[in-house]
Amino acid sequence: MCVFLIFTAMGVSIIIVKQTLTDQLNTGCQLKSGIIYELDMMYEQGSNILCTEKCPCKVDKGLFKTEISDTMITDQMGQIKLDECPVGSDVITSSQKERYYPLL
Fold first, then answer.
1. Domain ranges of the chain
2. Can you name the residues that pair with 77 across neighbouring β-strands?
3. Which of 19, 34, 65, 100 keeps 20 to 30 A from 1, CA to CA?
4. Cβ pair 34, 28 in contact under 8 A
């Protein structure tokens, strides 16, 4: 009986934490400030560069849905991470690189 109660409590707490995290992510993006917003902006800017003609990526297109893989530019000598792409400071600032690249 105790094992059942423990697993039930764990299941309920996971659901609560998941909802709380979702709320925090949505709030951070709506406020247009903070770490969550900066990471979201880095993702948006990076998705406009990585796997394009500006910075071909080294990836198997077969891993992605057709609508995504059709837009990807790949190369065997392509880049794996955004920080390997030749991007200017207007895309990602040096402070963003210092703070967030270790996380990525």
1. 34-104
2. none
3. 19
4. yes
Give the global pTM.
0.55
Contact between 57 and 48 (Cβ < 8 Å): no
Which burial class, exposed, middle or buried, applies to 3 when counting CB atoms under 10 A from its CB (0-12, 13-18, 19+)? exposed
55: helix, strand or coil? strand
Burial of 45 (0-12, 13-18, 19+ CB in 10 A): middle
Estimate to the nearest angstrom the gap between the alpha carbon of 34 and the chain centroid: 16
pLDDT along the chain (104 residues), means of 10: 84 88 80 78 81 86 86 86 72 71 64
- The CA distance from 3 to 5, in Å, is 5
- Give the integer Cα–Cα distance in Å for 73 and 51: 5
